């Protein structure tokens, strides 16, 4: 649901919205779900004024009937395949990343997930001359690594500067900052930013910060809704990284079984359109990528890539 803005209603001034944000009331849904008396105390608005705001928001945010044929034509016109610039990965994905979809890269720690993201960010900005948003939750983004990749191609300094300037990095610490970040990206696109790819590296640090599962799932559901909306309405591709953990069953004297579990719980299992697992092979600097979930490609399709200072290739 839409984020509260001053343009939505004359009584929703910047001051009133800041009061609401201070009480974690960020969206139209949050506003409608909060008791009117509580909003009166937060904003100092009259009961009748809040009733008027509620009616206006409900009317403005109700479902809009759209012509199915027009919607289909718009989708065909704007949908695109974004090459990753990694030859084997593009072959595995039959061309690259399809806009409107969410791609999840999962694997054990230190198995090349961040290097995968950095390489794709560099390739998309360099070859397609498109902006890429890189949302960094672990402080793992490295401009020096991007620079080393570009230096390896012997590019002139001004071209390197142009490429790196198109990678827009936001470092965030909480799941609420993630929501704010996506809303701000939507606003930038509306104001003219050319964008096709958003990378989130990584999700588990944000959603493992609290043990309140009900609140976690509520925020995750809101995050998923925003992500899907941006992907479909603005024809973007999302890459998100997730961790895999190893669980040992049994006691210290005897291990009964070893299982690998995907992070973020059962709810997350159905979210991504494509899930790609990355694992290090027995050969040095070689990694295997395997499609374990897809709504368009057969499961089990895989490829091998190399990783060094020049990136993934």
Fold and architecture overview:
By secondary structure, the chain is α/β, with parallel strands linked by helices. The chain has 2 domains: 6-60; 71-312, Rossmann fold (3-Layer(aba) Sandwich). 42% of the residues lie in helices and 24% in strands. It has 13 helices and 12 strands. The strands form 2 sheets. Strands 3, 4, 5, 6, 7, 8, 9, 10, 11 and 12 form a 10-stranded mixed β-sheet that branches. It has a two-stranded antiparallel ribbon with strand order 1-2. Strand 10 and strand 11 form a beta hairpin. Helix 10 (175-190) packs parallel to helix 12.
Give a short synopsis of this structure.
By secondary structure, the chain is of the alpha/beta class.
* Number of spatially distinct domains: 2
Binned, the helix content reads: 40-55%
Number of helices: 13
Q: Output the CATH class name of the largest domain.
A: Alpha Beta
Annotated CATH topology of the largest domain: Rossmann fold
Q: Could you say what the CATH architecture of the largest domain is?
A: 3-Layer(aba) Sandwich
Largest sheet: 10 strands, mixed
Organism: Ignelater luminosus
Pfam families: Rad51 (PF08423), RAD51D_N (PF21794)
Keywords: ATP-binding, DNA damage, DNA recombination, DNA repair, DNA-binding, Nucleotide-binding, Nucleus
Family: Belongs to the RecA family. RAD51 subfamily.
Sum up the structure in keywords.
313 residues; alpha/beta; Rossmann fold; 10-stranded mixed beta sheet; two-stranded antiparallel sheet; 13 helices; globular; ATP binding; ATP-dependent DNA damage sensor activity
